[in-house]
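Chain A, query sequence.
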Amino acid sequence: MRYNKGAILRSIEQPSLRSDVPQFDSGDTVRVDYKVVEGSRSRIQAFEGIVIAKKNGKGARATVTIRKVSFGEGVERVFPLHSPLIDKISIIRRGRTRRSKLYYLRELRGKKARLRTDVGRQEADRAAIRVSRSGDSVAEKPVAAEPEDVNSEAGEALAEE
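Chain A, predicted structure.
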């Protein structure tokens, strides 16, 4: 008897997948708000840095490695993307890279460690935010009434007064 191990793994992982993980790639600057438990209290700690690696695909075991420089010292942290301890992931800046793993940034210092901004993806994000804030997309906005209709309605309103 043969079992479909992939299907079994997917059925086990499916309930623990998060739906609010944004789409980002290596080179992007992200802020991860992570729940830290200290004794009996818990608080949210932000970790902001450049994504230098994404591993293990799209399943529940997917991880992301984020690097930042804090007080002149490089700090890297690996976050499981679908962890219940992650409160929120927000994209700060889109970076343009030609590689998926940016381990070479570990040796670079100062201005050499900067990445170019991917203007196209960043503008697309801003447009999506504007659309979500307005609640309407550009195509769904109502067309303005003809100038004759506007004048006739204004004339009727003045005539009634």
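The longest helix spans residues 119-134. The CA atoms of residues 128 and 134 lie 10 Å apart.
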